[in-house]
């Protein structure tokens, strides 16, 4: 966690270091490690020196951000197995899945700004998989749904741009249901900033030349979006 865009969870707080602290989550428990942050990390008002074991209900403070650890005690075997799956070298899958849940919960409560903060971490993770995850992977499906919903709720084209860039990074062919949801979101968005849409249009042409099946319907739809919104 930290202020940097490359963190799992990005916190917009000038009192927080770019890489402030790290949570180590295992079957044995949760350990919080301070990453030599400028203003320190505190657990129950005591500054963390190195690492500290956390307990359910512990109060954590980084800069102006305050949070409390909530240990889920009713995980099913399927959930535990899912948490152990990996989506990239040495990276556990629980963060994209859990951040996706936080985005959905924040949006359901009308907290769009909070959802956007979580979405930054989610987009960084999904863009970093670089082809190691299929577009129909449950984590990918959940992440894409969260971003399209966020684009619709916030009426900000930047989330659509990020969505296209994630598809480019992973060389994903957009699924029909995503395209339809995206069109619905664009009813409230006047334009799409950034280069993601153009990059994706070029990627589809390249994939087609390489022999991958790209439906003419998708090619035409992306071309239409490029003409209208880019």
Automatic annotation (TrEMBL):
Gene3D superfamilies, alphabetized: 2.60.200.20
Segments traversing the membrane: none
Domain FHA: 1-48
Designated name of the protein: Diguanylate cyclase (GGDEF domain)
Organism: Plesiocystis pacifica SIR-1
